[in-house]
Amino acid sequence: MTMSFNYTQHFNYALERQEDYLCIDMKSFYASVECVERGLDPLTTLLVVMSNSDSPGGLALATSPRAKKELGLTNVSRRFEIPDHPDLHIVPPRMHLYIEKNIAVNQILQRFVADEDLLIYSIDESFIRITASKKLFGWNAYQFAKNIQQTIFQELGLYCTIGIGDNMLLSKLALDNGAKLQPDMIATWHYQDVPNTVWKIAPMTNFWGINTRTAERLNKMGIRSIYELAHFDFFEMKERMGVIGQQLIAHAWGIDRAFISEKYIPKSKNISNSQILMRDYTEPEEIKRVLREMLEQIATRLRTKKLQTSCLQIGVGVSKNETLPSFSRQVTFTPTNHSADLVREGIALFERYYTRQVVRRLSVSCSQLREEAGIQLNLFESPLKTLDKQQLDTTIDLIRQRYGFDAIIHASSLMEGATAIQRSHLIGGHAGGLDGVPTKKSLLEN
Questions:
Q1: Cα separation, 202 vs 225, whole angstroms
Q2: What number of CA atoms fall less than 13 Å from residue 12's CA on the CB side?
Q3: Closest-CA residue to 313 (of 265, 360, 366, 351)
Q4: 125, 286, 296, 345: which one is catalytic?
Q5: Bridge partners, residue 274, by sequence
Q6: What pLDDT, in 10s, does the model give residues 15-68?
Q7: What pTM value is reported for the model?
């Protein structure tokens, strides 16, 4: 396929907003926190944070820089792939601790910039706009980055890499493709640097917003580099990939018109819950037990947000060696957020399409959300019964908010295969770390 270039195409950087942004990434965050808590150097220690480390399928959530370099480990390594090494620390995750440290990092950033100039991108990455703060502190962008690095290290013992750019995109690209290779862990990319920085990013999947599938699609169009993407015909790209394609071309020129204080409000909403089961489930009653728990959790989240749903989707993923197919089905109904209603609809949907598959993954999703609007009556149920359901749900929610999830549970959650009690102690699907895991203080005392 012949690629269509438009060599006269260019962006006028003089017309673009040019400010000073920093993209700050905490280096090997979970692993570094664990090193510091143990009095170890995050850069020289061999350490892996692993979920379910007692299982061959245990997953590495974070690895220290030295473990990545010397042992070839990644953040998706499995327990059976971890080599035996006398100096290697394999530790369980402590999500409560990581959230605590994330809050501490962003509190430090708030000393340097106003709240509207801070965007928390993820648990280990944040953007800040320093245009106004530079004048206050009397520093240039590089000095600003160095002072932030030093403050975080002095107070928390953690290292961070920083990308500096004229907009959020350039600061992110500088971080991912420049800062992590520099001795001082800082890189600066400006508009005028684009030909020598952005256009030389390789492979294409190292470019923010281009995943493997997008790269394959671009390759089929004859685009095999960021330089070629930048010079592809703008109007032909619109015909082939729509607005997303045009945005990719703009990004290839380093153009990003997003503003840090503009909050994104999604046009459509859904509330979902999914889990990978710790073993294969073959008994329908056990599967329905877990599904019931997930549906009740979704209902609780709906009530917390004062929302109702009229569309429920369940997904059933099969085990690796199962020959029967996975499936995903949905059903619509009168808007509700009552636990009993969602459980009834979800279980009925499962029973309708389940054909004795060996199950390893379950998901539940609610869409067509609307704000809660009093009691929804129907012809097949008395108003008193509807009110009773509402009062029961409200009472259970209040008890759990005050005393924890375990304070009131269904007897079925104590039976074989149930997962709700165990998962109620997890954060983001991983251990919170408050159940007897040693703290820095106890380690030092011992």
A1: 7
A2: 2
A3: 366
A4: 125
A5: 363
A6: 898 999 999 999 999 999 999 999 999 999 999 999 877 776 678 889 999 999
A7: 0.69
